[in-house]
Design brief:
The structure is a homodimer of 166-residue chains.
Chain A: H1 5-18, E1 24-25, H2 28-35, H3 39-51, E2 55-58, E3 64-67, H4 76-84, H5 95-100, H6 112-130, H7 133-143, H8 146-159, E4 161-162
Antiparallel strand pairs in A: 1-4, 2-3
Chain A binds a DNA duplex (30 and 30 nucleotides) through residues 2, 4-6, 27-29, 38-41, 43-44, 46-47, 50, 57-65, 164.
Chain lengths: 166, 166
DNA sequence: TGATCGTGGATAAATAATATCCACAATAGT
DNA sequence: ACTATTGTGGATATTATTTATCCACGATCA
């Protein structure tokens, strides 16, 4: 039971996008270079983020991606759902009902184990829901030296693309 | 990010063993038949449970498995650790440090995302630690009809093996 | 019109989970 | 002592999931 590395990539990407000035975008290739990850897989992740409504995309010569919401409105759980999909970590595979169903009679429905697992997962989700891109950025400011943040911003300005005024 | 079906199998197995009378055992093949799962994989799971100290095993003609602890002493997290191993669900793959490390300088250590994930996982673990085989059995008694429980016990007595007195 | 970009799907490669098999050691019954 | 039975441990296949690659397409801008 391991979380996809895609989650880490998605969070990093969104943090970059969150530091982007208004009306500017970043293209997928620039992001994958910065994260040092596979360009094709990151593009796939970007599509997921777009479909989940977390990111806006603009095609074309000066196109790229930008945050669709304010940083404080994007929770870690939103990102998790976008990347890992709904469905939860535990899924009943019918073993319990095999044990307790006597001949032909099938599950009354709720598997006892599933009930506990859902409770545990809920506790887990609640933590992720309290953390947003904004709160992560705040922690990052505390954790990393200002030189690193400055370097990141410098890189961003070197890579960003200005959106065309409509 | 999906939990292994092995977890469900292990929990069911331990519940069966928990209903076993004192000084009796159940052999692996009987268990896998009851759970309707692969015999070889279940045997592998049994080895994990033995190595984790949750289950005792006795080889030989009348051998089999039995619970090594009292049902109230075995938590769901114990089982999870036995089956999924330590290491947690989130593992830093260095993407964060790629983004924030400026040339050569590598991670100061703590990845911000990892910190949150560990908090979330801790909340998740705490729920699993509060649930034991005993509490699960109690819920099972509430959930399933007494006929089913009787059927299960009947099956158990038909399959169990008496340990030889030493 | 041409270059650049995101979209979407098909598909391959890598990894993790599940399953199968076999030689071995320990035990009980004979 | 012998044999049948059972767990142990490892090697290895099979299957599912994740990660990676590739290509045809449509939109945007110079």
């Amino acid at each position: 039971m391991r979380m996809k590395s895609g989650m880490e990539q998605a969070v990093c990407t969104l943090i970059l996008l969150a530091r982007l000035p208004e009306r500017t975008t970043l293209k997928a290739e620039a992001i994958s270079e910065r994260l040092e990850v596979s360009p094709s897989y990151l593009k796939k992740l970007m599509r997921m983020l777009v479909q989940a409504g977390l990111v806006d995309s603009t095609p074309g010569t000066r196109g790229g991606f930008s945050l669709a919401k304010k940083p404080e409105e994007v929770t870690l759980y939103d990102i998790f759902l976008a990347v890992e999909g709904r469905g939860g970590m535990y899924r009943d595979r019918g073993v319990f009902t095999s044990v307790f169903a006597c001949e032909g009679q099938r599950s009354t429905g709720t598997c006892v184990l599933g009930h506990v697992m859902r409770r545990a997962e809920k506790a887990w989700v609640e933590v992720l829901e309290q953390e947003t891109l904004a709160s992560l950025l705040q922690q990052i400011r505390k954790t990393y030296s200002s030189e690193r943040l400055a370097e990141m911003d410098a890189w961003l300005t070197s890579q960003l693309r200005e959106e065309v005024n409509e």
